[in-house]
Amino acid sequence: MQLEWSNGELSNFRRRLLRWFRAERRDLPWRGSRDPYGVLVSEVMLQQTQVETVRERWIAFMERLPDLRALAEADEREVTELWAGLGYYSRARRLRELARICMERHGGELPRGAEALGALPGMGRYTAGAVGSIAFGLPLSVVDGNVARVFSRLFLLRRNFAESAAKQEYWALADALLARRAPGDWNEALMELGATVCRPASPDCAQCPVRDFCHARREGRQDKFPPPKKRKATVEIQEICLVTVCDGRALLRRNAPDDWCAGQWDFPRFNVAKTDASAIKLAKSLGLRGRPKELGAVKHTVTHHRIVRTIYALKVKSTPTTLAENATYTWHETDDLEQQLHNTLARKTWRLFQERTSLERNSAF
Question: Catalytic positions, please?
Answer without folding.
Answer: 43
